[in-house]
Amino acid sequence: MKIRSLTVFLSMLVALGACGGKDSSKMQKADSQTEIAPADQKRMIIAKLTVKPDRCVEFIAAARGMIEKSNLEAGCTFYQLYRDPYDSTRFVFVEEYKNQIAVDNHFSTEYFKSFGSEIADLVAGPAEIKVIGVASEELK
């Protein structure tokens, strides 16, 4: 059940990241109030997880491989894991990519696809994941 939930959640994340139109170089209106960031804008991913208290060492070991491989991707600016100093079971992945294509490429890697099932028994619930555009890129 946990693997299925994580897989569904990650699939939704991939679908959100793949949103965009045929002309991805321009801002597109999702509705009259919301604009979608240009596909060539930098993207950040913030992924918050809670790990079972007795499984943190295993989680960090699994994450280490994901971090090393992700940081080698051509479109990845950085990929880092942080631990909450007040709650040692709370972790946050902070990632930055050159553009949406780099995010899509990251999501298509085999190590990304297998990471969810690798940590499914280590986490205490579903991850909270947000993909955001880097606003300072819009100011250029």
Structural commentary:
This protein has 140 residues and is an alpha+beta fold. It has one domain: Alpha-Beta Plaits. 37% of the residues lie in helices and 24% in strands. The chain is built from four helices and six strands, in the order H-E-E-E-H-E-E-H-H-E. The strands form two sheets. A four-stranded antiparallel β-sheet has the order 4-5-3-6, with helices on one face. Helix 2 runs antiparallel to helix 4. It is globular, with a radius of gyration of 16 Å.
Question: Main attributes?
Answer:
140 residues; alpha+beta; four-stranded antiparallel beta sheet; two-stranded antiparallel ribbon; disordered N terminus; 6 strands; 37% helix; Alpha-Beta Plaits; 24% strand
Task: Please sum up the structure shown.
With 140 residues, the protein is of the alpha+beta class. The chain has helices at residues 2-18, 56-71, 100-108, 110-119; strands at residues 28-29, 35-36, 43-50, 76-83, 90-97, 128-133. The strands form 2 sheets. The protein has a 4-stranded antiparallel beta sheet, covered by helices on one side.
Strand content: 15-25%
Number of alpha- plus pi-helical segments: 4
Give the overall shape, derived from the CA principal axes. globular
> N-to-C terminal Cα separation, in Å?
45 Å
- Uncertain spans, ≥5 residues at pLDDT below 50? 1-34
Order of helices and strands: HEEEHEEHHE
Oligomer: single chain
Chain-averaged pLDDT? 80
CATH architecture: 2-Layer Sandwich
What's the CATH class, please? Alpha Beta
Strand neighbour order, sheet with most strands: 4-5-3-6
Number of domains: 1
